[in-house]
Amino acid sequence: AKMSRPVQARRLEGVDKNIWVEFVKLATTYATVNLGQGFPDFPPPDFLREAFVRAVGGEDHMLHQYTRAFGHPPLVKILAQLFGKLLGQELDPLANVMVTVGAYQALYCCFQALVDEGDEVIIIEPFFDCYEPMVKMAGGTPVFVPLRPKAPKAGQLMSSADWQLDPAELASKFGKRTKAVVLNSPNNPLGKVFGRGELELIAELCVKHDALCISDEVYEWLVYDGKEHVRIASLPGMWDRTVSIGSAGKTFSVTGWKVGWTVGPPRLLQHLRTVHQNSVYHCATAAQEAVAQGFCRELERLGQADSYFVRLARELQGKRDRLVQSLDAAGMKPIVPEGTYFLVADISAFASDVPDVPGSNEPYDSRFAKWMVKNKGLAAIPLSAFYSGPHKNDYSRFIRFCFAKEEATLKAANDILQKWKREKAGP
């Protein structure tokens, strides 16, 4: 007999849909050039691949077995050394660092461990799409505050720096139920790098309202044009209330390895460990060993020209500039990102290609992105996917591209854009 009562937990209601499932399928089916999902299509550095080969092909057979549940000892040791230096803290590898299955699991552990029913969590829009459902699944209530764009100077392209928080609006979102604020700098999808003044504002409000900060810093090394990535945990009053999240996938261009971490005070990480041990429990040993060796190499070269972090940022800045030029020449209006490997572009000039559908609730950018992948073979992600329900139509004239791609991929994208421009111009 069939069951008559619902089988799904109530916490899953309204969080079942996922933009990536839909658009990855579309890109696989139609796209000749995929600038949608954010991952590099070029190989990771040789030294990291060699480290992984040594890990799986060497004589240490224990690298094929379980390691310490909360982080492979060599990895947490080097992470403590590196981030202790960057944060100005003396870090205990066993108490201040926890390794996770990518930054995604780190975020999940934060929300499950620190957010309770009735808690409010402030999320800055646009935001990486998993923040909202993860807060809801923990029983919390998302409270949204937008970055608002201001017009650039005449004759200049808009920058991600032109998208700013309104101090009074941000302050109005904090209250007695505020448990945490989620910070993502550099920000996905905009590429905004929050300045010291903006971070000090957030820090002051966190201290005033005794709120936590979940700081998603997975693109911490991908910062351009001489900008500085400021770690909010390094600001006065913030170390004891901040969990900082990082990712080997973004740091070393190995998104498929799924190695992430959290850094923070023991009073917070002890609760993350409870969630971790009762969910995935353990992360892949060999990948952690290889990442540990990669960080050992980079710690010796920190800030130097031959550092992979420095070289990758320089190479990606060049790729960013080429895609900016391609989009601008084709008639889209790119927003020049200060960091990450994402670029948002205004598609208003292409509105005639995909006219509005009367009565449709689907945001325009979503329909445009679907039309573009099916008819032009170019995949991107609608910006509305990074906004909460009531605000999805507010900025639905933008789509997001990923520029962490091989030169051949970027050239193919440029060819599509230029052909499209010629078709629009007519004979």
Automatic annotation (TrEMBL):
Question: Which reaction is the catalytic activity of this chain?
Answer: L-kynurenine + 2-oxoglutarate = kynurenate + L-glutamate + H2O; an S-substituted L-cysteine + H2O = a thiol + pyruvate + NH4(+); 3-phenylpyruvate + L-glutamine = 2-oxoglutaramate + L-phenylalanine
Indicate whether Transferase appears among the record's keywords. Answer: yes
Entry annotated with the keyword Transferase: yes
Gene3D superfamilies xref list: Aspartate Aminotransferase, domain 1, Type I PLP-dependent aspartate aminotransferase-like (Major domain)
The coiled-coil regions, if any, are none
Q: Where in the cell is it found?
A: Cytoplasm, Cytosol
- Where the protein is mainly located, per its record? cytoplasm
This protein's cofactor list reads: pyridoxal 5'-phosphate
Which key words tag this protein in UniProt? Aminotransferase, Cytoplasm, Lyase, Pyridoxal phosphate, Transferase
Recorded GO terms, molecular function?
A: cysteine-S-conjugate beta-lyase activity; glutamine-phenylpyruvate transaminase activity; kynurenine-oxoglutarate transaminase activity; pyridoxal phosphate binding
Q: In which pathway does it act?
A: Amino-acid degradation; L-kynurenine degradation; kynurenate from L-kynurenine: step 1/2
Q: What is its EC number?
A: 2.6.1.64, 2.6.1.7, 4.4.1.13
Domain (Aminotransferase class I/classII large) ranges: 33-413
Its assembly, as annotated, is: Homodimer.
- What name does the UniProt record give this protein? Kynurenine--oxoglutarate transaminase 1
Q: Which organism is it from?
A: Casuarius casuarius
